[in-house]
Amino acid sequence: xxxxxxxxxxxxxxxxxxxxxxxxxxxxxxxxxxxxxxxxxxxxxxxxxxxxxxxxxxxxxxxxxxxxxxxxxxxxxxxxxxx
Length: 83
Description:
The protein is α+β, with helices and mostly antiparallel strands and 83 residues long. The protein contains 1 helix and 5 strands. It has one domain (6-78).
């Protein structure tokens, strides 16, 4: 699957998380979320920049606010409660 363009940035004060992506990147994120939601077991998926050894996230700050910080690793957790 093509990777597309996807990355997360944190505002300078750490109060806002921004998600940026092109259509391919956002569709890929959607597929990851759907896969996690459909699983019967607790699971996680890590998205990582090349700077941190991955190839899932773009590694350049694109934010409009000066001082935005790039997120190098984003982990999505899905917990499945057992009855």
